[in-house]
User: Fold Nickel import system ATP-binding protein NikD from Natranaeroarchaeum aerophilus.
Amino acid sequence: MKRENGAESRDERPLLTVENLRTTIHTKHKTVSAVDGIDFTVDRGETVCIVGESGSGKSVTCESLTGLIKQPPAEIVSGTVEFAGTEILSADDATRRSHRGSDIAHLFQNPQQSLDPVYTIGDQIVETIRIHEQVDRQTARLRGIELLRQVGIPRADSRIDVYPHELSGGMAQRVALAISLAADPTLLIADEPTTSVDVTVQARLIELFRDLTDSGMGLLFVTHDLRVVAALADRVLVMFGGTIVERGPVEQVFERPAHPYTQELFQSYGTIDHRTSRTTREDIPATGCRFRSECPYEIEACSERTQPPSYPVAAESDHVVSCVYYDGEHSPAPILESGSAVNHQTDMSNTDE
Ligand SMILES: Nc1ncnc2c1ncn2[C@@H]1O[C@H](COP(=O)(O)OP(=O)(O)OP(=O)(O)O)[C@@H](O)[C@H]1O
Ligand code: NI
Assistant:
């Protein structure tokens, strides 16, 4: 959503700009490059979806952005994260905290991580609303109940008084979402918020996310469900082995997945397998194309450089791929047989209530 007029230069810049983000995880026996030099942006009103198999670095990316990742074992080795004109990765804790929870809301993959076990849902939601707005408790409570309804919590007026541990996984995920939204965030980072909910609720949540981005919120969304991506995303980032192998507008990526990994991923129509990657982390090369040992098209050039550079898939396209087959020398690029990609027209909103 671009502003028509009166936009100051500050507003012309993306809401979020991430550059060269690298996060390693130190364990007793080894150090894993969980996120290995990634760049991307999220605009106001835009939905950017991150897809990729289990272990590809989606959650570590999200948690690094807000500095919420546990250090140690994690270590943010490099990178800049600019949010609304301010560098937040190197900011002191107070600055970062002031961005977290208000301007930036972070919904963890594990919802209990977003909830405080010692307070009721109502206490947490009322408190969040009252931090951001001068309203009395009763007004905030009514608004809290409304928010719980919006995220699809049945009997919201009584559920508001329960404790987090009394909620199922899917319910906790939605409650955590309601609490995030109570802060009226400018950017919502949501790590698999629709995973353990039924289709009806999923359709309702997708509607809700659309309304929020229509009114200007930026949304960074992690999911394994390509149908959700099709229904929601403006742009897609495909991750493999801690790197972004392909990115672009959702229609283009779905119509013509360019990276051999994306092609493979999209052939398993619908939900990406939740299995851990076939190769263990140790088998993923540390430089060059991370996918090359599993790629049917591997050539010598795949192991050159730190990562293959990004090439446009078509001339002057925002759809780019990090694969040497697109450098103009090694063509023809591997092309997926037509018809195997997911139809991006899939409409989730038609599910019966
Ligand atoms: N606390 C941790 N200790 C050790 N390794 C970790 C830890 N957290 C993440 N990792 C490693 O970092 C890599 C990236 O993990 P991440 O959780 O970001 O994957 P993901 O893409 O979110 O996967 P999923 O789809 O399963 O949520 C993986 O190899 C994972 O094993
Ligand atoms: Ni994850």
Notes: Residues 25, 27, 32, 34, 52, 54-60, 73, 109, 281 surround adenosine-5'-triphosphate (ligand 1) (CB under 6 Å). The chain is about 30% helix and 20% strand. The CA atoms of residues 225 and 271 lie 4 Å apart. The chain has a mean pLDDT of 85.
